[in-house]
Specification:
By secondary structure, this protein is mainly α. The protein contains 26 helices and 4 strands. A two-stranded parallel sheet has the order 1-4. Strands 2-3 form a two-stranded antiparallel sheet. The chain is globular and about 70 Å long. It starts with a helix and ends in an 8-residue tail after the last helix. The structure holds L-captopril and zinc ion (ZN). The site of L-captopril has 4 residues, from α16. L-captopril binds next to α16.
Length: 635
C-alpha cells in the first residue's frame, strides 16, 4: 500500500467511525485501523467503544484474526532474530529490524484498538477474552509509539544495542591488535587469582558499553511513548503487569521474597568475603565493606561458583580450578552435542517426548569461527509449534551443562503449550519459563551424576555440593532483584542519563554488597555490559525463577513420593513428577499462574514462596552461621 492510499483509507475510516450510531447492532470494524499520517496524538485510535451486547462476539472475532496475524509476524521475527543472532551483519540486522518493527507496529495498533473497543466492557467479557486483552497489551517488551518513524527508530536501536553487545571485544594494548571476547574475558575472571589480571578483564569488557548509553536514553523515551499509548505510565509498569496482579503489588511481591532470602544471602556474603581475604588479604577485601566486584569469578558477580576453591581454603583445589564435574565431562570426552543429549535424556526420563530431529539439525552449539554471533544462550521456538532450537557457544564444563538444562526447559515448555491459542503460548508468568529447566538441573544431584557415570563417588558430606549450588543460586538473588530495580527507575524517569552509572552502583552496593574495583563515572555505562540490558530484556523473571525453581522442585519431589532432604532429591525417571510438570506446562498462560502452580504442586501451592529455597539450604545456612561466628558481617 502506498502512503497516499494509507492516508485516504484513514480519512475514510474516520468518517465511517464518526457516523456510527451508538445503538448500532455491532461496533464498526476497527480491524482495518491504519496508522494515522501525519501523526496525530499518540494513542489516538479512530475507534468507538463496543456496546456491551455484542462485545463478546466482536472480541472473539477480533482476537481470532489478530492472533492469526500475530503468529505469522512472530514467526517471521523469530526467523529474522535467529539469522541475526547466529550471523551478525548489516543485512541480517536490517532484516531483524524490519521484522521486529512489523510486530511492534501491529501489536501496538491492535492493542490500542482492543483497548479502545473493549476496554470499557472488559469486565463483561469471558475470562478468556479478558485475559487475551491483557496478554496483547503486555506482549511486546518495547511497545511501539504511534508514529511510524519513531517505531522504526526504536526497532533499529534495539537491534543495534544487541549487536554491539554480541560483537563486543576488548583489545588490550599489550596484545598489539589481538582482541578478547566476552568468553575469553570471563575465563580470566573465573580462573585467574591475580588482581591486576582480573581488573584488566573486568574493565576491558566494560569498554564495549558506553556507545549504548545514548541509545538506551532514546529507547526509554520512545518505548515509554509506546507504553503510554497502551495506558501504562511507562515501560517498567508494562513489564510489571505480566504477573496477574497490579504492577505495585508485583513490586511488593519481589520485596517480600527478597526479604525472606536476604539473611541466607548475608551469611553467604560474609563467608565468601572471609574466603577472599585468605587469597587477597584485608587490604583488598576489607572487613565490613562491599566485596570488589572483580574478585567473585564472574563478569557481573552474579554467581560465585568459580571461586569455590578459594572458599574452602584448600590449596590443592586452588591449584586445580574447576569442579569435579568439569573434569569428568572432559574425561568422558563429552562434546556440546553429547551434553545436550544428556540434558534431553533427563526430560525424556520424565515421560516427555524427545526433541524433534530438526532441533539437532538446526541448533547452534558451537561458537562459529568465521562470523560474529550473539553467544548468550537462547532458546527458540521459531514457528511457535515445534521448530525448536537453541543457540549457545557451549564449553565442555559444568556451568554450560547446567545452562543446557535451562535452555531445554524453554524448548520443552514452548512445545507443551503449542496447541494453546497464540496469545497463550507463553509460560504462566515469565518466572515460570526461566525456572523450568533450572528445576530439572536441581535434580542433577551428585547421586544422579554418579548413577550416570559422570562422578566417581558422591562427596563425603553434604556441605560441599550445597555450597556449590548456593554460590550459583543464592549469590544470584540480589542481582536478579536490582537489575530491574534500576531499569524501573530509568523508565519512570526517577533515574536520568546523568545518573545511570551512579545509581547502578548504588544498587549493586545496597543489594549485592559488591563495589566497583576502580573509580567509575558517567562516562562509563556499566549496566550495558550485561546482555539483558543491552538487549532490553526484562530481568526480574530470573529472580522469581530462582525462588520458584526450588518450589517446583519440592512439588515434584513430593509428587515422586520422596521423603528425604530436599537437596538430595532427584526426580530422574519419575513419571508421576513428569506428569505434573507436563500438566503445568500445557496450560501455557491461559489461566492465572496461581492455577498453574496448583497443577504442579496441588491445592496448597497458590503463591510464590521462598520457604522451599530456605529448606533446601537449611543445613548449609546453619553451617555458614557457625563459620561466620566472630566475624563482622554486613557492609
Ligand atoms: O540469560 C539467562 C539464560 C537465558 S534465558 C542463559 N540467564 C540469566 C543470565 O545469564 O544472566 C539464566 C540465569 C540468569
Ligand atoms: Zn532462560
Amino acid at each position: 500500500m502506498t502512503r497516499i492510499s494509507q492516508i485516504l483509507l484513514s480519512a475514510l475510516l474516520a468518517t465511517l467511525l464518526v457516523s456510527c450510531a451508538p445503538n448500532a447492532a455491532t461496533c464498526p470494524p476497527c480491524k482495518t485501523v491504519v496508522r494515522p499520517e501525519p501523526m496525530t496524538q499518540p494513542g489516538s485510535i479512530p475507534c468507538k467503544p463496543c456496546p456491551e451486547a455484542t462485545a463478546e462476539a466482536e472480541a472473539a472475532a477480533f482476537f481470532k484474526e489478530t492472533e492469526a496475524e500475530l503468529l505469522k509476524l512472530w514467526t517471521r521475527a523469530a526467523r529474522a532474530a535467529w539469522i541475526k543472532m547466529t550471523y551478525i551483519t548489516v543485512d541480517t540486522e536490517a532484516s531483524e529490524v524490519e521484522a521486529n518493527e512489523a510486530v511492534m507496529n501491529y501489536t501496538g495498533d491492535k492493542a490500542a484498538e482492543a483497548q479502545c473497543r473493549f476496554g470499557e466492557v472488559a469486565d463483561k467479557l469471558s475470562p478468556t477474552l479478558r485475559r487475551k486483552l491483557t496478554a496483547l497489551r503486555v506482549s511486546t517488551g518495547l511497545p511501539a509509539p504511534a508514529d511510524a518513524q519513531k517505531a522504526a527508530e526504536l526497532a533499529r536501536l534495539d537491534s543495534s544495542m544487541e549487536s554491539t553487545y554480541g560483537k563486543g571485544k576488548f583489545c588490550p594494548p599489550r596484545l598489539k591488535g589481538k582482541c578478547l571476547t566476552l568468553g575469553q574475558l570471563s575465563e580470566v575472571l573465573a580462573r585467574s587469582r591475580k588482581p591486576e589480571e582480573l581488573l584488566e578483564a573486568w574493565l576491558g569488557w566494560r569498554t564495549i558499553a558506553p556507545p549504548m548509553r545514548d541509545q538506551l536514553t532514546k529507547v526509554v523515551a520512545l518505548a515509554n511513548e509506546g507504553a503510554r499509548r497502551l495506558g501504562f505510565a511507562d515501560v517498567g509498569e508494562l513489564w510489571r503487569s505480566r504477573f496477574d496482579m497490579s504492577p505495585a503489588a508485583m513490586a511488593r511481591e519481589v520485596d517480600r521474597l527478597w526479604l525472606q532470602v536476604k539473611p541466607l544471602y548475608n551469611d553467604l556474603h560474609c563467608f565468601t568475603r572471609a574466603g577472599l581475604q585468605k587469597t587477597y588479604g584485608k587490604a583488598l577485601v576489607p572487613d565490613g565493606q562491599p566485596i570488589p566486584a572483580h574478585l567473585l569469578g564472574n563478569m557481573w558477580s552474579q554467581s560465585w561458583d568459580n571461586i569455590k576453591g578459594q572458599l574452602w581454603g584448600d590449596q590443592k583445589k586452588k591449584a586445580r580450578p574447576g569442579s569435579e564435574l568439569d573434569r569428568a565431562l572432559v574425561k568422558k570426552k563429552m562434546t556440546p552435542t553429547s551434553m545436550a543429549r544428556a540434558a534431553e535424556n533427563f526430560f525424556i526420563s520424565l515421560g516427555l517426548a524427545p526433541l524433534p530431529k530438526t532441533f539437532w539439525e538446526r541448533s547452534m552449539f558451537d561458537k562459529p569461527r568465521d562470523r560474529e554471533v550473539v553467544c548468550h544462550a537462547y532458546a527458540f521456538d521459531v514457528d511457535f509449534a515445534d521448530d525448536l532450537r537453541i543457540k549457545m557457544c557451549i564449553k565442555v564444563n559444568g556451568e554450560d551443562f547446567t545452562t543446557l538444562h535451562h535452555e531445554l526447559g524453554h524448548n520443552y515448555y514452548d512445545r507443551a503449550y503449542s496447541s494453546q491459542d497464540p496469545l497463550f503460548r507463553d509460560s504462566a508468568h515469565p518466572g515460570f519459563h526461566e525456572g523450568l529447566g533450572d528445576t530439572i538441573s536441581l535434580s542433577v544431584t551428585p547421586g544422579y551424576l554418579v548413577e550416570k557415570g559422570l562422578l566417581a563417588a558422591e562427596p563425603k558430606n553434604d556441605i560441599e555440593p550445597l555450597l556449590d549450588r548456593a554460590l550459583k543460586k543464592v549469590a544470584f538473588l540480589p542481582f536478579g532483584v536490582l537489575t530491574d530495580r534500576w531499569r524501573w527507575a530509568v523508565f519512570s524517569g526517577e533515574v536520568g542519563p546523568d545518573a545511570y552509572n551512579k545509581s547502578w552502583w548504588a544498587l549493586r552496593e545496597k543489594y549485592q554488597g559488591v563495589k566497583a574495583p576502580a573509580p567509575r563515572s558517567e562516562a562509563d555505562f556499566d549496566p550495558g555490559s550485561k546482555y539483558h540490558i543491552a538487549a532490553n530484556y526484562p530481568y526480574t523473571r530470573y529472580f522469581l525463577a530462582t525462588v520458584l525453581q526450588f518450589q517446583f522442585h519440592r512439588a515434584l519431589c513430593r509428587a515422586a513420593g520422596y521423603k528425604g532432604p530436599l537437596h538430595k532429591c532427584s526426580v530422574y525417571g519419575n513419571k508421576a513428577a513428569g506428569k505434573r510438570l507436563a500438566a503445568m506446562m500445557a496450560m501455557g498462560s491461559s489461566r492465572p499462574w496461581t492455577e498453574a502452580l496448583k497443577a504442579l504442586g496441588g491445592a496448597g501451592e497458590d503463591k510464590m514462596d521462598a520457604t522451599a529455597i530456605l529448606d533446601y539450604f537449611k543445613p548449609l545456612h546453619a553451617w555458614l552461621k557457625e563459620q561466620n561466628k566472630g566475624r563482622e558481617c554486613g557492609w
